[in-house]
Write a structure and sequence with these properties.
The protein has 72 residues and is mostly helical. The protein has one domain. It is 75% helix and 0% strand. It has 2 helices and no strands. The longest helix is centred in the middle third of the chain and has 31 residues. It is flat, with a radius of gyration of 22 Å. Keywords: Membrane, Transmembrane, Transmembrane helix.
Length: 72
């Protein structure tokens, strides 16, 4: 069973590598300026959302909201 899992994972890794290589080898126009702007805005928004979620996680942990309820 373990060997089958390892083989499956190696096949998936090879498929991902082939897909990445074929995507990089495509001939055509380079990314226009608007594409770089969209990429930067998307990455920046993702970082802002990630930082905001981490802040909420630490706030929740410090205030004790993550503790199980204590019934009396």
């Amino acid at each position: 069973m373990r060997a089958l899992l390892i083989i499956l994972l190696l096949v998936m890794l090879a498929a991902a590598g082939y897909f990445a290589y074929s995507a990089m080898a495509v001939e055509g126009e380079p990314i226009p300026t608007e594409g770089y702007v969209a990429l930067a805005l998307g990455a920046g928004f993702s970082v802002i959302v990630g930082v905001g979620l981490m802040v909420l996680l630490f706030f929740s942990s410090r205030r004790g909201y993550d503790e199980p309820p204590h019934f009396r």
